[in-house]
Each structure stands twice: as structure tokens, then as C-alpha cells.
From TrEMBL:
Name of this protein: Uncharacterized protein
Source species, domain of life: Bacteria
Species this protein is from: Amycolatopsis vastitatis
């Protein structure tokens, strides 16, 4: 069974491919060497499986979505529940889909990179906007 975390990001209007590349580069900058596989893209999104270069599967699939009606609909769908009011400014979404044996160093590196690059509001269906990396 997969578990998803959305990071609602205010990026200033970055394109999906540039956002994805910045995110992966930022995640690698902290010393976590990542290997991308199964990279795919479409109108307004880029996704790939991220695993540690050292081997093994991380159980972490990352999708960066930006500049699409789907992003606007997802933001609108949760904005009323955000106690900070910041999610309504989001123009991009990073979706972390976690399954199987999860390498939390990869998840942490991606999450921290997003927070370093942009204003981020995390969300999951279980904890809502109370989700925190330290409790995963």
C-alpha cells in the first residue's frame, strides 16, 4: 500500500521540468547521492523513482507538478483546511509516493531540498496539514 505526502510549494511560477531538476539537485547537495529511474513527463509534470546511488530501492517516487489546471484544483481542494492560509499561494506540488521498504534518508533529502528552495506547506490524508517529516 502506498502512502502519499504532498508538498504545496510557492515557487514563483517555475516550470515542472526546471522545478524537478532543482529539487533533485538540491536533494543531492546535502550529500545524499541519488539515482533516477523511470523518469517520465507530461503537460505540467515530471516524475521519477529516486533511489540511493549506493544501491537498493528507496521506495520513493517523486512527481513535480506545476502550471496546470490540476495543480490549481488540488490547491483549491485543500486551501480551506489550511490553518496557516499559505497553501492558497502554492503554484506547484511535489508528491512523494512511498511504498515498500522506504529509505527515509532519500525522503528527508527531497523534503529538506523543497523547503530550502521554496515556501512549502506539507500535507497528507492522515494528518492533514499537521504532517511533519520528523513524525514519518
Amino acid at each position: 500500500m502506498a502512502y502519499e505526502v504532498q508538498l504545496y510549494c510557492t515557487t514563483g511560477g517555475i516550470a515542472a521540468d526546471a522545478g524537478f531538476d532543482s529539487l533533485v539537485s538540491g536533494a543531492s547537495a546535502d550529500g545524499t547521492e541519488l539515482r533516477l529511474s523511470d523518469r517520465s513527463s507530461g503537460d505540467g509534470w515530471v516524475a521519477a523513482q529516486l533511489d540511493p546511488v549506493s544501491g537498493g530501492a528507496a521506495g520513493c517516487h517523486v512527481q513535480f507538478s506545476a502550471g496546470s489546471p490540476l495543480v490549481a484544483a488540488m490547491v483549491a481542494g485543500v486551501a480551506a483546511d489550511d490553518p496557516s492560509g499559505r497553501v492558497s499561494d502554492a503554484d506547484s506540488i511535489v508528491t512523494l509516493t512511498l511504498s515498500g521498504e522506504v529509505d527515509w534518508t532519500v525522503v528527508s533529502a527531497v523534503w529538506r531540498a523543497a523547503k530550502a528552495l521554496w515556501e512549502v506547506v506539507p500535507y497528507d490524508e492522515g494528518s492533514g496539514f499537521a504532517v511533519d517529516l520528523d513524525e514519518l
